[in-house]
């Protein structure tokens, strides 16, 4: 095995961000993917009426397929924020899952933490759940969706939120896809309030630029002007030059939105972040507008759902 990925990662910890490893994301993430076992995705469809709490599940719209499909990637806090408090769960992710079903998509809500006993990934990896492991999870989730008998294999998308949005960035890299050799991945991507800069999120995680220069599939990105957890300025600096070069990136910005602006159950939540105190504020208008724009984007890029 080549030592180059490990040397590159070590240098990245001490040199100026972006100075090394710019084209080595695929090799590093592939090594990280071996840190935890593969997920077991559900084949049985959960009836929407029985989808009463956020968990790993496969949902299907009514009617006859084939349908487009989507895999949903949660934030670093996972789907269950506090197991001792049934109300402290990620209701927004369940809401998004149901919204996709209502719009005609077979929907796989992925839980890449709880099956491995990881409680939080906000400060770094737990139990082997690294960026690389999660990127491979979602490439495998795309292939799982394609195997479903009522899914159109050419119309499969990924939608990620915060850390899930980072995973979408890394998945939309030609180099990463080729190095992981994990199938076709997704036909289109959506990233909600991602970190767009240079990441050193905990020992054992990928250290490097999260937005790859070789993103080559349609990608919609949402940011908030009041987001001081993953600053939108980093996204503007990184994405706008790629858009000018003709990369298939669509960028939408909500000036009055914070991080996690769709997280109704976390409205008013505060914590200490890298740039000071962070407060989440639920923004219904931004949530509704982003949903409209997202479904328009997906219809344009992977075709209309038959509803």
What report would you give on this structure?
31% of the residues lie in helices and 18% in strands. It starts with a helix and ends in a 5-residue tail after the last helix. The strands form 3 sheets. It has a 7-stranded mixed β-sheet, sandwiched between helices. The longest helix has 19 residues, at 284-302. The protein is of the alpha/beta class and 307 residues long.
Offer a few descriptive terms:
7-stranded mixed β-sheet; disordered N terminus; 307 residues; 18% strand; alpha/beta
Low-confidence stretches: 1-9, 11-22
Q: What is the structural class?
A: alpha/beta
Compute the number of strand runs.
11
Q: Strand arrangement, largest sheet?
A: 1-3-2-4-5-8-9
Sheet with the most strands?
A: 7 strands, mixed
How much helical structure, as a percent, in the residues? Answer: 25-40%
Relative strand content: 15-25%
Through-space gap between termini: 50 Å
Average pLDDT level? 90
Count every helix, treating DSSP H or I runs of 4 or more residues as helices. 8
Radius of gyration: 18 Å
Shape: globular
Secondary-structure element order, N to C: HHEEHEHEHHEEEEHEEEH
Short description:
With 307 residues, this protein is of the alpha/beta class.
Q: What is the secondary structure topology, with strand pairs?
A:
Blueprint: H1 4-14, H2 25-32, E1 57-59, E2 67-73, H3 91-102, E3 106-110, H4 131-146, E4 151-161, H5 163-171, H6 174-180, E5 188-192, E6 198-199, E7 208-209, E8 219-224, H7 232-244, E9 249-254, E10 270-273, E11 276-279, H8 284-302
Parallel strand pairs: 2-3, 2-4, 4-5, 5-8, 8-9
Antiparallel strand pairs: 1-3, 6-7, 10-11
Helix pairs in contact: 2-4, 2-6, 4-5
